[in-house]
Amino acid sequence: MADELADGTPTGTTTLTDVARAAGVGESTASRVLRGHGSFSAKTRESVLNAARSLGYVPNRIAGTLASTGSKLVGIVIPSLSNIVFPDMLRGANTVLVGAGFQPVVAVTDYEQGREETLVESLLSWRPAGMMVAGLEHSERTVAMLRHARIRVAELLDSDGDGIDIVVGYSNREAGGASARHLVSRGYRRIGYVGHDLSRDLRVAKRFAGFRSALAEAGLEVAAEEIIPSSSSIEAGRDGLGRLLGRAPDLDAVYFSNDDMAIGGYFHCLARGIAIPGRLAIFGYNGLDVARAAPQPLSTIRTPRVAVGETGARLVCSDGPPTKIDLGFELIEGATT
Amino acid sequence: MADELADGTPTGTTTLTDVARAAGVGESTASRVLRGHGSFSAKTRESVLNAARSLGYVPNRIAGTLASTGSKLVGIVIPSLSNIVFPDMLRGANTVLVGAGFQPVVAVTDYEQGREETLVESLLSWRPAGMMVAGLEHSERTVAMLRHARIRVAELLDSDGDGIDIVVGYSNREAGGASARHLVSRGYRRIGYVGHDLSRDLRVAKRFAGFRSALAEAGLEVAAEEIIPSSSSIEAGRDGLGRLLGRAPDLDAVYFSNDDMAIGGYFHCLARGIAIPGRLAIFGYNGLDVARAAPQPLSTIRTPRVAVGETGARLVCSDGPPTKIDLGFELIEGATT
DNA sequence: CGAAAAAGTGGCAGCGCTGCCAACAATTGT
DNA sequence: ACAATTGTTGGCAGCGCTGCCACTTTTTCG
User: Fold this and answer.
1) Which pLDDT score is estimated for A12?
2) Per the CB 3.0–4.6 Å rule, which of B128, B224, B298, B318 could disulfide with B75?
3) Is A26 within 7 A of strand D by CB distance?
4) Domains of chain B, CATH where assigned
């Protein structure tokens, strides 16, 4: 069927058959030319390409995928688009996937395991060539589906635990520990914590657990903590530190659940004239731009978020045995400790 | 074919036919039950559902979509994942689309029109139910393809121009103008500009054009400008302002291409002890968290990025005539002007 | 109580494409 | 010149599912 009849009636879309007919060749020949696969003469090539162009042919990958088994889609499941970590990871993954001819399909869980299950199922129904998910903790059924799918599965941004197939990340637990040891080595002793809802984001919980246990090894404990019930933000960090200092004014350092929160704390101190690090030290997590560019660069831990996306994507596109890669992190000794 | 033979040989995936056979019903009946569409007895329902569950059946939407014409995919094309604007818009769109049973497929152009064309073509080949693209400027072929596809097309985040079908955004030109008038009304006269690469991001160019022409109406012009050749960042803003002030130390206000840049400028002033706004006023664009939470809230323009995504998605999911919606913006009189 | 309507069900033809195979044409080698 | 290759090409059977239609039950109702 042509795209438009002589009388102007639109009739569906242009199909490969239309192109083949217009070019005066068989379907399979047209298909071969359009995919640059198999052999055909230069003349045939031209006529098919011309026909396709003049008809405005757009191949139907739905049909193509169904016929050839094995799509060029890769499902990506992340908890949020608000937390910079995930867009960063996504960016890395996107670059590599697109470079390898894959098309990412993104789904966002809002940190809910139930929704993760639904989304994984839904993505799998597109028969993707691979899946990338954030974190190592998933519902039993999610894991079962992922295993059952017999495709490459990458679990990203965490290395504290066992994965299904590919694991690329860094140890959040260890990052928390390193943060604590850094503060201790700098001589801080009355250390507080300002964090955000950790029941939802398990990586935050792991960090804090690592932090606590490293403190404990130094014979210390968290002197005071303030957990805000919502997700992290600069304002939450600012207000959280305000409240924490209201209750525990003698703290000499505060560990924040991430840089957003820490920058909030930094702003609180700036606004109140609290000397950093003289009167109060601040330590964050993530290594954001804003942390690096602040008048006093924030002491924090820089995580290889983009690289995690890239490496994960690369592995998902490849064959090979299950792999676990710890990309590590870098402790940035800024000016706030 | 069963998922696994008696001898343990894995044989492909479980199909609807398998489920139907296991449940002792016909394919179409199984299909109806699984989609909750059409009629079937409660008993049939149970047996199909049980069969599906015990076989670990995952429907194949590739096949489903091909058979039923019309997918539940919506293609989204954005220039970048690094600029907060796009993840924000994406978030709004995602919420609405998922709520309406659609699955977003995201593609990133890196601000290259050539790549946009490729990506639009590639996304269209998935026969999406709709498309959402950033901005109003596209290559001729891109527009042709989008029109040809006979699906809903939303162009987002800009309202300065004509669109293909649905346009949801705000006037970048007008935002620039409002910024200029604000500065003028506050009595600033020696106004500088620090911006980032505007050849790639057309919305930045529109803002600056609007800014200039509003200044001209007040009989003023941009006293000095510093354009960094890369994309925007806090550091770029900080360094840019440093260089600008080096060349033009007598400025009394600086307009930045966005809040990232402006916060960088703010940090520069903090670090150098330049009084804000006494000695120098700062004005940004976007209304980011960090701008609001800074010790001195940044004067800026807050744009309804998430709402643009939501509204655009809502319209893409609906029928109706071509529409253009200007969601406007809000000028935030912070403490930096 | 029988006819008409409704509910439940299975068969089967595609959706648009790819992969395989067989058919033929153009080369090459001997 | 003839056989053996190599290069080109079209036909056609699916991929797994949905939509339509025809058919068999039930239920409803005059």
Assistant:
1) 65
2) B128
3) yes
4) 16-59 (1.10.260.40), 71-170+305-327 (3.40.50.2300), 172-302 (3.40.50.2300)
